[in-house]
Amino acid sequence: MTRRYLLPLTVAAALATALAAPAAAAGDTQWRADLTTINDDDTGVAAHQGAVRLDRAAPAPASARRASARTGFLLLDPRELGTPANAVAATVQSTVPAGAEVAVDVRGALGGDQWTEWVEARPDAPAVLPRTVRTVQVRIALTTEGDSPEVRRLDLRAFNRPAHQGVGAEAAGLSYRVYATREGLVGGTTANGHVIVARDHFVALPSRRGLSPKGTGTYSVRVCAANGRCEWAPVWDVGPWNTKDDYWNPAATRESWKDLPQGKPQAQAAYENGYNGGKDQFGRTVANPAGIDLADGTFWDGLKLTDNAWVTVTYQWTGSGPAGFVRTSSTPLNVRSAASSTAAQVGLAANYAQVRVECQVTGQSVTGTQGTSNIWYRIAAGKFIAKAYVTGVSGATNC
Length: 399
What we know:
The structure is a single chain. The model is unreliable at 1-19 (pLDDT under 50). With 399 residues, the protein is mostly beta strands. The strands form four sheets. Strands 1, 2, 3, 4, 5, 6, 7, 8, 9, 10 and 11 form an eleven-stranded antiparallel sheet that branches. A six-stranded mixed beta barrel has the order 12-16-13-15-14-17. A three-stranded antiparallel sheet has the order 21-18-25, with no helix packed on it. Strand 3 and strand 4 form a beta hairpin. 4% of the residues lie in helices and 41% in strands. The chain is built from two helices and 25 strands. Keywords: Signal. Residues 1-20 form the signal peptide. This is Secreted protein.
């Protein structure tokens, strides 16, 4: 029987096919996923008799504050395509009990450790990426509020099809003013498997489309408070309130709540305007308009906030131009007002965070994890970080 694999099923097995994908053609790349190898970059899943399912310790995303919804991710190895493509169709053989979901997400490599946003390949529509790419990566997301779903087989096919007409972003990336709350929840586990520690530095967004694998910052944000301080931090959790609200995207690609203005979180619309009856996707009454959750270190130390507040968030992966990743031993990197370690600290850049580089200047020589250098990167107006702690930047020009 052929069914949509995202919907709860009462039958023992479901075979989901990408019905909207055209028939296979010459030049398409086809492959079958390895469901038996579990690595350190996977979280909450286990291999079971040639299939993948949630393990007993699968976490619930801390920020979503819905302990019954356990989630796990199997991150497959990147796949080099025989022919460049911009779409991937998925055929899934799975068992999906009531209250469970299986989803297949795809992203494309852009070079320099940059990736497109995750896009879901649905049974009735393939994942269509914003650009044609030579390498794709696939992950399987398993969610349940009861018995675990099980994926026994996943066949994939990459091909070309017309892409959505996206909305162009400035070099710095899309930026919106949203309400920020403090996540806290020390000792809890984020959606990507990170165990939250005191004064931690990461953020949560209410969609897995911008979720970075544990120990990476592919999807990071710049968060700036009204006091002028900013922190660059990786997205490691899903929430608050919703888990399928990529509000930063235009209606053509936004997963849910497509009738809302781009940049307006569903929780904000529910809280301020009674949208969706004032409820989130789980039917809970929305008690604040939050569009981002901040870990304690980001909240207290990076932004120096004392209470929940409106902030300006820039979604780094939506930008263009030179970019790099912060690499420290563990503690955040100081962001300075000038190219010197004695200049005023005006924010922080968390370990693993992606930063967009506006330009570079010569300043004080610094020794860090990436060697010794007197080059400093300007990552926002009046905000500089030492090159000695940043990797991956290419093509930066002088200020």
